[in-house]
Amino acid sequence: MKRIMLLFFILHLFTHCSTVKKNNAHLQQLIVPNQLKKDVDFTYRKLKNLHPNLYYYTNKEKLDYTFDSLKATITTPLKPLEFYKKISPVVATIRQGHTYVLAPEKAYSKKETKAIIKKGTGPFSQFDFSFYNNKLYVIKNKSYNTTITAGTEVVSVNGIHPQDLIREYDQFYTSDGFNKTLKTNWAAKRFVAAFTTEFGIKDSLNYTFKLNDSIKTITISRFKKDSNGKKDNKKSSKTTPVSSKNQHVLKRKKRINGYDKTTKTFIRSLDFFSKDSSVAILKIKAFKKGNYHRFYKNSFAAIQKKNVETLIIDLRNNGGGRLSEIISLYSYLADSTFVFLKNSEVVSRASLFEGAYFNNSSVAEKAVKTLFSPFAYGYLLFTVQKDKEGKNYFATETKPHKIHKNAFSGQLYVLINGGSFSASSILSSHLKGSKRATFIGEETGGDYNGTVAGFMPVLQLPHSKLKVRMGIMSMKPTYQTNVHGHGIYPDILIIPTLEDQIKEKDAVLDWLKKELIP
Q: Which of 419, 180, 189, 178 is nearest to 320 (CA)?
């Protein structure tokens, strides 16, 4: 058995290394126009076969013209990244946030990845950035160079001006509809991602900074916390060992609340205002990871026990996640029995079969799935129905839900911004449509009237090897608005200023605290 396991490990290692080399070699290859045009046709054909709301924001005539025009511009061989820059804006004209082309990037072996991590924190990760009024600023300096203060403008990185790269890559993705706050919210992170796509991971970067009228160029290199002048000259204090009981409590909390290893923060948290425990704030960064059933059960039991009168739900920068979780949460917030979704439109039974059942499977998994495919397709025969207009619908979450016995009936506020997307927007649609909550902040990045998500296959184009991700279920909340292609608007608009961000001041929550606790 050990020999067999060792053989599988060696085969996996060689396969992975081979895939990495093959991917990186392909990035430099030129693909002839005829093959690229076939990839354009493949993309549009798959969108027609799988995407149920393809012409919701952009009509068929315009989209047909856009894809045809793209093919007309392909007259010379292109590398994958060059082709990505041509086809991505076309896919983005669909204006569906879950549908986009993944940027081709250099791959790294496990050995290379470990070596990079071992060298320490990268030159981008040493700063927190904000893109404000078309300029990139340092909001927090975590580097070894303490002369760079918060509020310093980043004029360029290795000669690249942030606004130029952000403007270029803004064409390659979209929010749901015509919303603009999502792109504004994601701009700083998009710059880092776009720079990495263009130039790869770097161990050092030449920053040109501007503060007031002073301009200076500083090289920031990858570093470890115990190097580059970061050594603590003071005698290291003895660390208090964590008891096994406390370790168990922490592990349990991570398991229930969900834990983000990158930021070292909990995904869900419940806190009570120190001056007035009748006010609680429930912060949810995403609807993923963790035992949400247990978290909400414990949280709303505590809310009831403390006789909370006002509850604040912070959905800012919540990019979405599990549908089952937002339904569970809404059962604690609704004031009556509710139906969460309208029937979800799909292109056909075959689209669900291809996009949901067979996609993202290895050769071995597909072989096994083929054996059970008659049962899967038989299930779809009963669950996918046609309406009078001939459209296909997949009935999911269309039955009435009762509110939870510990449902909160007090005053409710919801904090939103451009980073509130997908599932967090669907939840907000219900809270807004039922007039259950007061919304504060900015317009959400997700559409009030729903999104195309559900199952989201990733399809590889045959020649360029680019990957296209798309949703295949049009999911619409029961509450709808006549405003086309926009998110949930706040009742009270508050946009954090650059100064707020520099001082780490939460302008939205601070305003609300003053209103609630004079």
A: 419
What global pTM score does this model have? Answer: 0.89
Q: How many CB atoms lie within 10 A of CB 428?
A: 27
Q: Which two structure tokens, joined as six digits, stand for 251?
A: 């592990």
C-alpha 368/C-alpha 230 separation (Å) is: 54
Round to whole Å and give the CA distance between 69 and 213.
46
Distance CA 282, CA 269 (A): 6
Longest Cα separation, the chain? 77
In this predicted model, what pLDDT tens digit does every residue of 465-481 receive, in sequence order?
999 999 999 999 999 99
- Token look-up 């701009």 returns 187
| CA-based torsion, 191, 194, 198, 202: positive or negative | positive
Which residues lie closer than 8 Å to 94 by C-beta, 6 or more apart?
47, 51, 54, 57, 58, 63, 174
Burial grade of 12 (CB within 10 A; 0-12, 13-18, 19 or more): exposed
- pLDDT range class, residue 459, cuts 50, 70, 90: very high
Sign for the CA dihedral angle at 54, 58, 62, 68 comes to negative
474 SS3 class? strand
> 411 pairs with which residues across the strands?
310
Which amino acid is it at 190?
Answer: R
* Tokens describing residue 513: 């605290």
Encoding tokens for residue 91?
A: 């896919």
Instruction: With beta carbons less than 8 A apart as the criterion, state whether 315 and 282 touch.
Output: no
Q: Which residues contact 231 (CB under 8 A, 6 or more apart)?
A: none
- CB 94, CB 57: distance < 8 Å: yes
Does the structure show a pLDDT above 50 at 377?
no
